[in-house]
Amino acid sequence: MTRWLTDEEQRAWRRYLDMNAKLTARLHRRLQTDSGLSLADFDVLVQLTDRAVPRMRVGELAEALQWERSRLSHHLARMQKRGLVSRQDCPEDARGAFVLLTDKGRHAIEQAAPAHVEAVRDLVFDHLSKAEVATLAGISERVLGRLNRSDGEESTPG
After folding, report:
1. 49-53, 74-78, 125-129 — which is least confidently predicted?
2. 67-110 per-position pLDDT tens digit
3. Which of 10, 37, 56, 83 could be 41's S-S partner, Cβ–Cβ 3.0 to 4.6 Å?
4. Cα dist. 122→32, 38, 82, 116, 118 in Å?
């Protein structure tokens, strides 16, 4: 039997979806205008700069971004043409490859990050109280915990 959303749950869900779509679009436009990077470029560069050694296996990067490998491969090819990343064959796995952050990629994210953080502050955090930020973090952690437990597989309620 279907457990339909209550009116309040449906309102919350639809507002979340609308907020997510509009926030993502606005952040993308600002980032593109300020730095020439897309939000997808920025996400890839963040994954690489968050590591002591700025390189990742392609599959690991796809998993971290929750992207299909084909989408990542096409996007990395575009980023590589712009000199933001490079690829390196993996000596242990002939089919595997590493994605490496280039100096140009590091410079690009270092230049883009301050304006991006300011945009996130302006659009989200400057309008929330400390309690609301804590609530947002708590909700996000609970939902992510549930998603991580399901390991990407749909489960049936019960």
Report:
1. 49-53
2. 999 999 999 999 999 999 999 887 776 667 899 999 999 999 99
3. 37
4. 17, 19, 30, 10, 6
| Amino acid (one-letter) located at 147 | L
Domain boundaries, the chain: 23-148
Assigned CATH for 23-148: 1.10.10.10
**How is the beta sheet containing 85-90 ordered, strand by strand?**
55-57, 93-101, 85-90
Axis-axis angle for helices 39-49, 103-123 (nearest 10): 110
142 pLDDT above the threshold of 70: yes
Tell me if 95 sits within 8 A of 53, measured CB to CB: no
- What pLDDT shows up at residue 14? 98
Pull the structure tokens for residue 126. Answer: 């400057």
Q: How far is CA 93 from CA 44, 89, 98, in A?
A: 22, 8, 10
Does 95 or 111 have the greater pLDDT score? Answer: 111
- In the three-class reduction of DSSP (H, G, I as helix; E, B as strand; rest coil), residue 26 is classed as helix
State the number of CA atoms in the 13 A half-sphere of 134 facing the CB: 3
Q: Cα 89 to the chain's mean position, in Å?
A: 25
